[in-house]
Amino acid sequence: MNTGSVLLTTVFWQKTNASRLKSLIQRFATRERNCFAKAKPSFLWRNRRLAAVTVFRKRFGPVPEIFTRHKLPKQDSYYIKDGEYVWRLQKPSLPPS
Q1: Domain range holding 52?
Q2: Does residue 26 lie within any of the structural domains?
Q3: Is residue 58 part of a domain?
Q4: Domain tally for the chain?
Q5: CB–CB of 42/72 below 8 Å?
Q6: Is 1 contained in some domain?
Q7: Is residue 15 part of a domain?
Q8: Burial of 12 from C-beta contacts in 10 A (0-12 / 13-18 / 19+)
Q9: Cα 20 from Cα 14, distance rounded (Å)
Q10: Is pLDDT above 60 for 56?
Q11: Sign of the dihedral defined by the CA atoms of residues 17, 74, 69, 34, in that order
Q12: Average pLDDT value over all residues in the chain
């Protein structure tokens, strides 16, 4: 994804399907973690991840709790953990009421 990519816009997130949005949230989480590990600013990727999570919740329902945290826990992968996809493994986090 380059800086001006259409994949980074909220308008795209509001129109795309659930699987594409899940993939983007995972990619944002991975990029955020990589920046953090290299001692680079991760603010931009964290904001994108949290904004995409908000859009996903409004359109498709609950999101795994791991993606709703302000600070991501250390993990080798945000796609698969212990042989299971994170979206199936993690308990969903409901939006605050």
Answers
A1: 6-93
A2: yes
A3: yes
A4: 1
A5: no
A6: no
A7: yes
A8: middle
A9: 11
A10: yes
A11: negative
A12: 81
pTM: 0.78
Torsion of CA 20, 42, 61, 80, to 10 degrees: 60
Residue 51 pLDDT: 95
* Structure tokens, 31: 């990029």
Residues recorded for the chain: 97
Percent of the chain scored above 90 by pLDDT?
A: 35
**Residue pLDDT, tens place only, 4-51:** 677 788 888 889 999 899 989 988 998 998 898 899 999 999 999 999
47: CB partners within 8 A, 6+ apart? none
Q: Is the pLDDT score of 83 beyond 60?
A: no
pLDDT at 95: 57
**Distance from first CA to last CA of the chain, Å, rounded?**
34
Kind of pairing between the strands at 80-81 and 92-93: unpaired
- Euclidean distance between CA atoms 31 and 91, whole angstroms: 23
Structure token pair of residue 53: 């999570």
